User: Fold this.
Amino acid sequence: MFTSLIWLLLFLKELPCFNLDFLNGSQTIDINNLKYINKEITLIKVAIVGFGLSATVFHIPFVVHSPYFSLIAISTSRLEAVRNSFSGIEVYQQSEQMITESDADLIIITSPNYTHYPLAKLALESGKHVLIEKPMTESSEQALKLTELARQKSLVLSVYHNRRWDGDFLTLQQVIESGKLGDIRVFNSNIDRFRPVVEGRWLEQQGEASGVFYDLGSHLIDQVLHLFGAPQALTANCTILRENSSVTDYFQVMLHYDNMEVVLKSSPFSASPNLRFQLQGEQGNYLKYGLDPQEQQLRDGVALTAPAFGIEPPVNYGIKYLVGPDTEEQQAIKIETLAGCYSEYYAKLALAIKSNAKVPVSALEGARVIKVIELALQSSALGKRVNVDLSEFHSV
Assistant:
């Protein structure tokens, strides 16, 4: 009981908006003395597959900063790069060997998408919890098999849809939940970039589950399903626009709900400011430009403890436009963007592993994203609207 309480307090302390000052000075628990608290609990031992951008930018900083985890092993072909960056951890050249031989409790898979299924399957069969970088798998069939295996083994299986913790998305949720815009009728969500030249990264190489739709589209789909649930149908155009590109680099997906339309889009030719979100409701609109700052801050090496981490500059705040019921006069209100906090994902993951709490992004949630991707690609190939049925992703 005491250990579970400590885990709960550690989790609450990690959240950017929660104040635990009332606990300071307690003779039983000093919430600000993490070294003391860590003596009372067993840390979650973590092994990471891969040492590329995903691992070094989106996962390792949170693992090493977190009071819940201990990084013990990494598998990569870049052995010297790991040894030069970390001391006291095991380095493996073969991911399978690390999964089966290391003493890890949690395996984080950041390797190319086609490896997600076999490595996650091996990890679950080896009795280890698993976190898979999005997209979860190449197919929804694979995703459901992993979900069932995790259930049979009573293990945590989660997918890293971290953009649920983007500050702009958290703010968008707040705007919707406030009801100030009335019933939402149209929603546009975009992540556009100016990348007119193919860079040759593995994400841009031909193969299953490659291309921008699996990369960025999986985030946009997850956010919409999280907000509104499953649509009734969809219509999609997933295509290649760049010279020398061999995989999808542009997509536009229309999700058809009862009395609401949602449009998801990404273009590699957008040199202008990114219109990230546009909400159109019966009583007003909300427009948000720019991208959440956390990714760029992580790339730039900004410390997670820096006061500015996850904080968006006022120039990028969204605008809420309201029209009164008895007048056509428009009121424009700037909405401060909430702090982004990818660290909350890891805090919740730790609670799920240690205290059987709700998984922050469940395996079924990751699997349904893959199913929507498959349906969108089918719609694009056939050139027609297709129905969406996600009933098999409610339970396995």
User: Anything to note?
Assistant: The chain has twelve helices and 15 strands. The chain has two domains: 2-163+344-363, 164-341+372-393. The first helix runs from residue 2 to 14. The radius of gyration is 22 Å.
